[in-house]
Amino acid sequence: MKHPEILLLGVLSSGPGLAPMPADLIVYGTIWTGAADSADAQALAIRGDVIVAVGDRARIAALAGPNTRVIEGGHGLVVPGFADGHTHFSDGGAQLAQVELRDAATPAEFTRRIRAYASGIHRGAWILGGTWDHENWPGAPLPTREWIDSVTPDNPVFVQRLDGHMGLANARALALARITRDTPQPEGGTIVHDDHGEPTGLLKDNAMNAVFAAIPPPTPEDADAAVAAAMRFANSHGVVAVSAVSSPWSEVAAFERALRRGTQTVRVSLYPALADWKKVAERVHAQGPGDDWIRLAGVKGFVDGSLGSTTALFFDEYLDEPASTGLFVTPEDSLRRWIAAADSAGLQVVVHAIGDRANAVLLDMFEAVARDHGPRDRRFRIEHAQHLRRQDIPRFGAAGIIASMQPYHAADDGRWAASRIRPAQLAGTYAFRSLLDAHAHVQFGSDWTVAPLDPLLGIWAAVTRQTLDGKNPGGWFPEQKIGVVEALRAYTVENAYGVFAERRRGTLEPGMLADVVVLDHDIRVIPPDSIRHTRVRTTIVGGKIVFVD
Questions:
Q1: CATH superfamily placement of domain 1-81+506-549
Q2: Which of 92, 89, 402 has its CA nearest to residue 244?
Q3: For residue 16, what are the CA distances in angstroms to 10, 21, 22, 61, 79?
């Protein structure tokens, strides 16, 4: 155990017998270091991009020089920089400049916003983004292209549901994608038709691929702008590191350009598509996995879709779609083959699973690969691990499989999930407490842009289990609540573990990278419902101040 009063004087010393070199930056305040069994510290000192001392205020104050910058934490809390274990990062940056439909409260408002956005762009430009949620609308009708065709005659439109597993195309976009009433249903996806057999414009999971193929790829300038906007936004919420999952190669290249320019302010672990495992493995073999800023970490696959789009894979039929139990987004045999091949190539494999059957199938696959290929530190991750059968929860800890979860989804889905699945299935929804009690590694993230990129909202959701509609003030399945410190660990220590970076970041200890966040309140002692109103005052990445409120 490292104690907060220990100083790395070998790092600080300017030479044998000489006084310690001044720190570049000192942060005072109540400091939660994240180190196991460590008491709070009162100050920390940074030199270059690393923490060189952590301890009491008087001892750290002795390291101040004439050029040392000082940050006073006041009555707030100083914590390790937050990491987000699951983002669609460049998509999030692009969405900041696209049409915003997440809080459109009615179908009329949905149409109005698209009309207004279309009026401000040039003819022929695609209208993308959206992140709409039909659960916000009275009666929860799904949108159709008739809502928007008349207001977008000159622009193709493809706006996705906030979960990214269903989207709405207008007539122009359907034509460019060559989707007609006679287009066969794709494997792992659904083209929704009306009573007359015509496409409604709604496309689920793999049915969206035809539209994606018709959308012009982003230019390098577009990709750079999206990543830059995403980094600024992330830093404003105290996020210093992310896992960027399902990463397109354009995103990889944009981060590499940012690093060369010296403009990168968010550390990134990149996970391109599982189907691309061979290309990823060849690149890692030729160039190495990366460094503290950019790491080509592994590959990301899919078992199923989402609960909101009724494409998550369950053992039982949906209550509101009784002919369906969901679907395999990736054919089961392909998924098994690719996971095994990627693991043989030494890559970390992370895979999306939402429904209880999807999680059970994936646990079987991970366990089989580990058994067949022999012991190594592989750190398989299940992304979401959203709906679990009781008997599957202990398997995470026993097999060393990481549950990569997004607590804000529980606050959101809890408004309407009971209309889709049964009480027994709901009891295993985002089972934070049960997974921790089963000694599983649990890391937290947002799934941005599916949910807000704000760790404090995620901590609030994990600690209170309240839902966004205010109807569960005591918590939705409150037995799955966890403590504030446990949630903090999931956003710091456990996220570092999830990308093999625990020796470099995730705690505030001497020798660790100087990634630090100052909050305006100590979230461990304020009322839990107030956590969501807490603000980030300062964000430091690699010893540099990148955000000040």
A1: Urease, subunit C, domain 1 (2.30.40.10)
A2: 89
A3: 9, 12, 15, 21, 33
Pairing of strands 267-271, 239-245: parallel
Identify the pLDDT of residue 12.
44
pLDDT at 5: 37
Q: Of 392, 478, 403, 413, nearest to 445 (Cα)?
A: 403
* CATH no. of 91-214: 3.10.310.70
Listed in order, the ranges of the chain carrying CATH 3.10.310.70 are 91-214
Q: What is the pLDDT of residue 19?
A: 56
User: What stretch of H or E contains 240?
Assistant: strand 239-245
DSSP E strand boundaries for 484-530: 516-519
SS3 280: helix
Q: 367, 399 in Cβ contact below 8 A?
A: yes
Does the predicted model carry a pTM greater than 0.85? yes
Residue 456 to residue 82: CA distance in whole angstroms: 9
pLDDT at residue 7, rounded to an integer? 41
| pLDDT value of residue 20 | 72
Reduce the DSSP state of residue 400 to 3 states and report it: coil
**pLDDT < 50: residue spans in the chain:** 1-17
Q: What tens digit of pLDDT does each residue of 180-204 get?
A: 999 999 999 999 999 999 999 999 9
- φ, ψ for residue 419, nearest 5 deg: -80, -10
Considering the chain, tell me which residue range(s) the CATH 2.30.40.10 domain(s) occupy: 1-81+506-549
What is the residue whose two structure tokens read 């597993």? 165
